[in-house]
Structures are given as C-alpha cells and as structure tokens.
C-alpha cells in the first residue's frame, strides 16, 4: 500500500508532463517537449494577481484541492495484482465522490475571485458537468455489474476473460464525456474556455495558475488510468508486466481524450444541456440495462 | 488514533455546521454545510461503513452544489459573493435549536443502543442491497418516484419553454370557449411578484 502510494507520487509528475506534451502536439503553442516546463517555470516566477474583495481562502485552496482530488481518484487504481494505494471495497464510489467534488472545486475556483468572467465560467460549468458526472456513474455501475463488486480490484479481475470495452461498447465513449468534463477540455470546457478569456482562470496568474494547469493535467492522468482500468482491463495483458500494460493503456486513453477534445466542437451551453439530458443520459441508461441483461444468469 | 480522528472530525462537523449560520453568503453557507456532511461521512468510514460514508460525501457534494446554484439563482443576491443576512426569526430559531439539540442528545444518551461489533470482512454493500431491495423496497421506491416526479414538475413549471408557449411571449392557456378568456388563475395586481424568503 505504501509502495503503491510512493510509485503513484513518483509517476505522476512525468505523466503530467506527457499529458502537457499531448496537449501541445499540433496546437502551435511552443515546443512540444520543453514547452510545458518553460511555461511552468515562467508562470512560477510571475506574481499572483489580486482581485477586488475575493474569497481568499477558496481562491488559494482551489488548485490544491483539484490536485488532491486527482490523487485520491488515482489511488483506487490497482497498479498490478494486489498492488493498490487505497485498498477499499468501494473504490468506484470513492472515484465518484472525487468527480462530484471536482465540480465543486472548479466552481469555487471561478466563484472566489469575485470577477465576472470567472463567475460565468463557473456557473455554466456546473450546469454541464453535473449531468456529465451523473451519466458517468451509470456507466461505472455498468462496469461494476460483471464483477458484482464496487471494488476496482474486482472490476479488473472480472475482465480476465473479456474486457469491458467489448462487453459494453457504449461504456468507454460515454465515460470519455466525463473525462472531457472533469479535465475542462474541448467540447466540455465551459469553465476555462478561450471565449471567456480563460473563464475560471481569467484572473489567475503566477504559481496559482501553474498549479491549476498541473492539477488539470493530473486529473487527465487519473481519468485515463481509471478508464483504462474500468474498461480496458487495467494491468491485465500478455507478455509484458502488469504496470507496463496499465501505463500503455493509460497513455492510449490520454491520447484519445486529448484528440476527442480537439475533434469535437463545443456547443452553446443550452444545446449541450439538452444533448446531455436527452441523448447521452438515456444512452447510459440503455448501456446499463444491456449490461444487466448480459450478466443475468 | 481512531479516537483522535473521531474527535477531530466531530469538531469539524459541528464547527462548520455552526458556520453555516454565521457566514454572509449562500455559496459559503452551502459549502460549509457540505464540509460538515463530509466530516460526518468520514466518521461513517471510521465506523467501518465505507459505502455509506463515501456515498454520503458523493451525494452531499452534488446536492450542495445544486443547492448553491439554485439558491443564488432564485435569491436577490447575484453571484453569492455580496454580503447578506442569512438568518431570520432569531428568537424562534434559537428556541427551536436548543429544544432540538436537547431532544436529540437525550434520545442518544437515554435510548438503549445495540452494541454489535461488525466483523472486518462483512459485505456491507451486499447487506445494504438486500435491505434496500428486500423489506424496505416499497418505501424507497415510493420515495424515489415521488422525488423524481417532483423534480420533473419543478423543471416543467420553471422552464422557459412553458406548456402554452415560451414565457416571454405570454404563455397563456387557451380559453375555455373558442376565443374566450384564458383559463386558469389570474395574476393579482397585474403580475406583481412576491419576493419570498429563503
């Protein structure tokens, strides 16, 4: 357990770096490999900006909470057989709690500076991210059904015969919607969009902004590891050792999420809300019902 | 260690519960309440009920977020960062608070609570599932469907696209006779809005 925690803490910064590189490929935002480090260093050296009458405590803590939630979410992912940082019987629920609290933290990040653009970003993000989180829970219950357990370890073990991505093909694409939402990305980036001059981060600068970007990339790593575990068999695979498989699958999901963020267009919030409630949420119900029929004895 | 954690979490729960009534904004109050519930959820985890505890945190995060959103939406406090008085009916609420606290404390101290050690490897989720889908199924299903119907009703009533057309173009029901007066209740004083409390 302690070993797994240490491995996660050591592996996270390089993986965050890789996530930032993925974000830069073909985006025309500086060099791909060294760009994230240069930008990070430049941000750390800049001062934080002040706003008028902010909620100081929440403004200070929001980036840290975001990172902490990514870490807690990542901790339920088993790295190999019997190697998992938090060995609890309800890992999927803990992941769900991290999703829900992420929405709260992003809201607080936009609400606390007491400035218009961050506030608009915060409110419209909440409206979109809550239903996105809801559908992810139905999809995750679908992943838990064949295992008959909410433990992530059991969910992986239940995929020895066949991966969930084949058994429940709707699961992974629907879960990706959540991934885009909690990493503030592409079609679900209602929080930090460019049309709001950075949205919840519009008033941020300096180390606080650097930490926010770091946490956002860490959340992408956590989401990718979780998606790889719940739908792609996690550490299962031939020849290579378990952690190597988990790493490869995590990187694949990460690349797919970044690509999806670039490929799909962002709709106006009202249309996205309708799309979520009328199309995606019923799809997740259908996916869950299909899984239920499949696992009936 | 467990005792120290329990004491720390209980203190946090009570302190943040108290702060709910002392802060000056809807958003702060909602999230103080959320912190209080998270502390209670963690106490449940300490009591070897991880599912109940973590599910409480999960639900409360969502609920308090929705509550903050709706309260700010319907209140005269745009954005929730403007200071406002969060309490009213001081005397009544102080009396009600003291009576409720004394009553609940007496109930906990005086009632004969079962002392039953839960073994380490017991399947709490399975037991809870049997409880929910067994003897208590009718209650939970009734409550669930009622809540869902309430939510859908609230959304339909407050939606911009009303039953009789968009709200900004009148949204009047048709007349009882062809071309007659619109059916339904007439707004008093030409649509004067009452601002309710919270």
TrEMBL record, chain A:
The chain crosses the membrane at residues 60-80, 92-111, 123-145, 217-238, 244-265, 272-293. Its main location: membrane. One of its GO terms (cellular component) is plasma membrane. One of its GO terms (molecular function) is NADH dehydrogenase activity. It is found in: Cell membrane; Membrane. The keyword NAD applies. Keywords: Membrane, NAD, Transmembrane, Transmembrane helix. GO terms for biological process: aerobic respiration. It holds the Pfam family NADHdh. It is a multi-pass membrane protein. InterPro entries: NADH_UbQ_OxRdtase_su1/FPO (IPR001694). PANTHER family: NADH DEHYDROGENASE SUBUNIT 1, NADH-UBIQUINONE OXIDOREDUCTASE CHAIN 1. Belongs to the complex I subunit 1 family. This is NADH-quinone oxidoreductase subunit H. It comes from Roseovarius spongiae.
UniProtKB/TrEMBL annotation, chain B:
Keywords: Cell membrane, Membrane, NAD, Quinone, Transmembrane, Transmembrane helix. It is a multi-pass membrane protein. Pfam families: Oxidored_q3. The chain crosses the membrane at residues 38-71, 92-113, 133-157. GO terms for cellular component: plasma membrane. Its EC number is 7.1.1.-. It is an enzyme of class 7 (translocase). One of its GO terms (molecular function) is NADH dehydrogenase (ubiquinone) activity. InterPro entries: NADH_UbQ/plastoQ_OxRdtase_su6, Nuo/plastoQ_OxRdtase_6_NuoJ. Residues 166-198 are annotated as: Disordered. Gene3D superfamilies: NADH-ubiquinone/plastoquinone oxidoreductase chain 6, subunit NuoJ. Its main location: membrane. The keyword Heme does not apply. NDH-1 shuttles electrons from NADH, via FMN and iron-sulfur (Fe-S) centers, to quinones in the respiratory chain. Couples the redox reaction to proton translocation (for every two electrons transferred, four hydrogen ions are translocated across the cytoplasmic membrane), and thus conserves the redox energy in a proton gradient. Belongs to the complex I subunit 6 family. This is NADH-quinone oxidoreductase subunit J.
